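User: Please work through this fold.
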Amino acid sequence: MAVRIVDPSFGIPVDEEVTPVARDGEPAGALCLFSNSKPGANELLNGVARRLEAERGMAGIGFDSKPSAASPADAATLDRLARRYRRAIVAIGD
């Protein structure tokens, strides 16, 4: 199965002045990739990470996932990710 990744920000200049902010005394990462654990979701996010690293120079991209596609993400996981990262990309797979 081939996955095609389309960059929705194509043509928008990269803002080099944006830096991660600190929250709760811990520096926040710029981006987290979050998988809902459906088939193909992890592969999709790995491709997104590779493209962001290669084309946008982003480093230190985080990754997390739900234990099962059949259940929602628990509040503790979402709170932890919100404290640590400024933004997230969520893959729904399939």
